[in-house]
Design a protein that fits this description.
By secondary structure, the chain is mostly helical. It has one domain: MazG-like (Helix Hairpins, Orthogonal Bundle). The chain has 5 helices and no strands.
Length: about 100
């Protein structure tokens, strides 16, 4: 699937979700959910590294998927084309430019 198609599909999903819930999510709410999911992913790695609690591969997979969805939702709310944005960065930030 092309990134633009995935971005459209996520936009349609989120609009349907917002309509079902009866509210339109703001950029701030979307960002808060994104950070929440990053925290859940972080918790799984802390659990893995400390052995304090079990690290669940399914939870890692779910958190990464949720992060991706919230990131694309945030881009959609900002009117960004993810593919163009990423390609622009890849063209500008070459490995050579990052190493100085």
């Amino acid at each position: 699937m092309e990134i633009s198609k995935l971005q459209e599909q996520i936009d349609e999903f989120n609009k349907a979700w917002e309509q079902k819930r009866g509210y339109k999510g703001s950029e701030q709410i979307c960002f808060n959910h994104l950070i929440e999911e990053v925290g859940e992913l972080s918790r799984q790695f802390v659990n893995k590294d400390t052995g304090r609690d079990k690290c669940a591969s399914a939870e890692i997979e779910n958190a990464i998927g949720d992060i991706f969805i919230h990131l694309i939702d945030l881009a959609n709310k900002r009117g960004l084309d993810i593919e163009k944005t990423v390609l622009k960065i890849l063209e500008k930030d070459t490995p050579e430019s990052r190493l100085g």
